[in-house]
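hey so i finaly got around to running the thing on LPS export ABC transporter periplasmic protein LptC from Sulfuriferula multivorans. pasting the sequence first so u can double check i didnt mess up the copy paste, my clipboard has been acting weird all day
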Amino acid sequence: MISRGSLWLPLLVLLLLAALSFWIERSVQTIASGNATGETDPEGIMENFDALRTDQTGRPQYRLSAKKLKHYTGSKRTELESPHFVLMDPSTSEVSAVSQQATVSSDGNEVDLRGDVNVLRAASTGQSALTMQTERLIIFPERKLLRSPGPVNIQDATLNLRAGAMEYNAVQRLIKLTGRVQARYISGNN
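ok and heres what it spat out for the 3d tokens, dont ask me to read them lol
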């Protein structure tokens, strides 16, 4: 004959295992959601960061440098302090951009510059140097495309432009302005 006490022992062990597995699951969820430390602390920090992208023949395509780089594993986000981006192409003018901060997409195909963004397209044969100022500039390095989703001021030797947004194709050297556009011609005979 089986006593009543021997039936409670397996039930007590099962309840203890259920409580333990519940506690372990909660602990793992807290760490995975980033509440413990994950997202606030970068996985890696690099000072005086400088990267150069070349094509298959070894010719430089673009350079990205920064005072400080922080990479976060959980979101795969990369943040840059005082970034400097230079688009290099022998067939077109060199284009450089600086800002206060930037983020780089996880695949590296998009650089989002923010805060007092200044762009300089170097002078070339038949074209004067061109400067652009905006608060935000999104660069697509592989496509050689620069996009400002907000107000932008553009100036060269003969023009002063303001627009609501701008897109610059560095290969075609084509600037597309949208929104309210104001242009002022600067005479060279002053």
